[in-house]
Amino acid sequence: MPHRIIAIEEHFLDAELAAHFGAAAVEQSQAIRDRLFDFLDLRLREMDAAGIDVQVVSHQSPGAQRLGEDVAVAACRKVNDRLAEAIRTAPGRFAGFAMLPTAIPEAAADELQRAVEDLGLKGAMIHGPSGGRFLDEPFFWPVFARAERLNVPVYLHPALPHRGVTDVYYAAYAKSHPSFLRAAWGFGVETATQAIRLVLSGLFEAHPDLKVVLGHLGEGIPFQLARIDEALSRPGNAPVSFAETFRRNFYVTTSGFFSDPALRCCIEELGVDRILFAVDWPFVRNDAGVNWLSAFDLDPASKESIFGGNARALLRI
Questions:
Q1: Residues with Cβ within 8 Å of residue 10, at least 6 apart in sequence
Q2: pLDDT (tens digit per residue) in 275-301
Q3: Number of domains in the chain
Q4: Is 280 a catalytic residue?
Q5: pLDDT in tens, 28-49
Q6: What's the N-to-C CA distance of the chain in angstroms?
Q7: Which of 125, 144, 208, 258 has the fewest C-beta atoms lying within 10 Å of its C-beta?
Q8: Which residue of the set 167, 260, 280, 297 is catalytic?
């Protein structure tokens, strides 16, 4: 067992923000809701039972990307303030990712800076498109520019696919198999599409030191990396070094994806230093993630890097 385990995609739900979304924010089971609203009881007990030393806590979907301009800035400030206060109540056990009012990019950039410099948060989490607009639009680049300047990552978290996409691709099975448009497929496709668009947009040429994190072992991109890179290099495509950019600017986490073959693929394609441990608590059990990686066939130094060393370096914990 490594000396220090840091899990970096672990969630909570702020009661005031949840009120903005109504039933959409609390559609989970009672057991999940109990854990999302908890901070110092169930959360710590289950961390201790599994041997997790630190959770990097982030707000659960829906995120601020579904808030209108009239409420987004104030709502994000309140959530980030309360998250920072909760972190202070248990020294050494928690860190956090900020919520950002991306509907107003300059305000979001300023809130990121306040959250990092004044509150001690470690970066930001963005939940899918902002107001229906993909984040690769230059309109949103001030957020990424500020993240680069502050040397903190932006974590791209899944969100429900666009309503039009859902109607065409997923609606036939939305009732019988609701996870089809969520964690089983729709979440990953939506988030991977956003990540690919960020690379194609030229964002990383403008901001070469920007760091982006993808959960769920990269939302399928590591498995497809060679194929994507080769296809985008064919005649007729604008020049892009997709694989090089992905390996340089992206990190992936193990959140909710405890598969030996998938992890081996990520190690071979990206290298050990680009992989971070995460559980996706409370949707997944802490012990499931810890026991899986503990048993994974990997040299101790590399396993230690995934369990905590890479997160310490990236987030300066």
A1: 55, 56, 57, 58, 278, 279, 280, 281
A2: 999 999 999 999 999 999 999 999 999
A3: 1
A4: yes
A5: 788 998 999 998 899 999 999 9
A6: 19
A7: 208
A8: 280
